[in-house]
Design goal:
Helices cover 74% and strands 0% of the residues. It has helices at 7-31, 37-76, 87-96, 101-115, 118-131, 136-148, 153-166, 170-189, 204-211. It is globular and about 50 Å long.
Length: 214
Amino acid sequence: MLRLRGWLPALTAAALFAGAAAADAYLTERTGQVLPSRVRQEKGALVGNLLGQFRTVAANMLWMKADVYHHEFIEHDPHWTKNTDILPLMRMITWLDPHFTQAYASAAWMLALYNGRPGQARTFLQEGLRYNPQSADLHQTMAIIAWRCDGNPRAALYHLRKARDYTKDAFERRSLERSIASIEHQLAHGLHNPTLGSLSPERQPLRRRGSGTD
């Protein structure tokens, strides 16, 4: 069985970060009575900046590791949506760098659309949006979950409009505008769309029973 080999860099990153923080605390204690306040403030800012850069680098390293592991999984099992072992790596990435929106979106997509856990996906995305309120990608993912899993077209519209307002890509903006116009038209005329709520957890058992054994 394929084993997740992403824990070693994750644990190493955490250990190095903890060591850096401990070293800073030690130096602060030893020099606190000697260095002028201005120098202490500059030292604190420098250490904080270095730790922030380290966290960003570590998050990118884990993302690359997750990508490699994901493709290794696909080589053994084409059903990549079953690769839930990758989710702890996504969680670690967002702990290290809460502005890593790709990790938030990828994990939420897998949780909600392929593993029937839209509540967890929504909570994860809400955390991501607290750190990245102008992320078009996170708003668009939230809109998809609202539409496909929650059956909530008004919530989907809200996040699609946010995504349209924040995206910097002209092609994506036009695509979002078409989606918004389509949903507005459906709501205005009371039209039924079969994809609305099609992946809600309540409808999943029915789909499995109807499809038989794989």
